[in-house]
Amino acid sequence: MQSTDKCLEELGWNEFFSDQVSEADVGQCRPVRVMAVHRGKIAVAGAGFESFITPYITGAEPGDDHPTVGDWLLIDRDTAAPMRVLRRMNLFKRRAPGDPRKEQMIAANVETLFIVASCNEDFSVARLERYLVLAREVGVDPVVVLTKIDLTDRLEDFAAAARAIQPGLDVETVNGRDAESAARLAGWCGKGKTVALLGSSGVGKSTLVNTLRGSDSIATQPIRAGDGTGRHTTTVREMHRLAQGGWLLDTPGMRELQLSDAAEGIAEVFDDFILVAQQCRFSNCAHGGEPGCAVRAAIAEGLLPLARFDRWQKLAAEDGIIHARRTKRPR
Ligand SMILES: Nc1nc2c(ncn2[C@@H]2O[C@H](COP(=O)(O)OP(=O)(O)OP(=O)(O)O)[C@@H](O)[C@H]2O)c(=O)[nH]1
Ligand SMILES: [Zn+2]
Question: Where Zn(2+) is bound, by residue (predicted)?
Answer without folding.
Answer: 280, 285, 287, 293
